[in-house]
Amino acid sequence: MFTIKLAGIPIGIDNHYTFIDKQCTAYQCTDKPLFTVSVSEEEIERELQLTDPSLRSDRGYGESVCTYRKICLQLPQYDTFLFHCAAIEYGGKAYLFSAPSGTGKSTHIKLWRSYLKERVSIINGDKPLIKKEQDGSFTVYSSPWAGKEGWQRNCAYPLAGICFLGQAPENSLTSLSQSESARRALKQVLYPRDVLLLQKTLSLVDGVLKCTPVFELHCTISREAAALSFAALTGEPVPF
Asked: For 14, which of 8, 38, 144, 211 could close a Cys bridge (C-beta 3.0–4.6 Å)?
């Protein structure tokens, strides 16, 4: 058993396998946990039956997936929720790129990294957390769970913009209304079964969309696509 800190929240993990211990090394702390998560062998087995066949013998991996899901289902009570996206940092601010799995998140942030070099850094490649701070602002936090590439570092930056991606033969970018943003954002959130936590999750998402610019980018794999999202999200002249 060990304790990690996610979005400033100390969480106990009562693990059976070493996989998750190693995975969470950079996030471990000595604080007293606010809650503790454990996963049964039955839960691991059910998870492995749903995953990639090449990973079905890795019970540590299965425990890790189940553990993060259980953690995220409790986080709304601490004003925090999981948002399925790739999160990058530029100019000390966090920008999120969201899309269904396999439709271009990683590819698009690779374009930013290709053109902006060391001026842009990865926060988390797939499963960052968004937290409402005491002053009402929202901060993007990384976690050890970061998708197949494993792109992540233990860091946090203020949320400054969200871009939903879709593949297209030509590049086009649209600013989304709050209702249009909600329709897309709500597909990328994990929902607790507990009614009060569900309501809290929806309230947090609503809060994010009320104060964050949101865009939809239909794009190719090109410099123009990266330039469109950069200009819209940052409000700066394109430097590449």
From this structure: 38
Interatomic CA distance for residues 36 and 187, integer angstroms: 27
Q: How crowded is residue 3: how many other Cβ atoms within 10 Å of its Cβ?
A: 18
Q: What CATH number is attached to the domain comprising 194?
A: 3.90.228.20
pTM (predicted TM-score):
0.96
Rounded Cα–Cα distance for residues 44 and 123 (Å): 28
179, two tokens: 């209702």
Q: Where are the alpha helices (DSSP H) in the chain?
A: 18-23, 41-49, 59-74, 105-116, 178-185, 195-211, 223-234
CA 89 to chain centre: 13
Taking alpha carbons only, the member of 108, 143, 111, 112 closest to residue 126 is 143
Other Cβ atoms closer than 10 A to 161: 19
- Residues 95 and 166 grouped into a single domain: yes
pLDDT per position as a tens digit, 180-200: 999 999 999 999 999 999 999
Whole-angstrom Cα distance, residue 87 to residue 50? 26
Coil, helix or strand at residue 70: helix
Number of domains in the chain: 2
Angle, helix 105-116 to helix 223-234, in steps of 10 degrees: 80
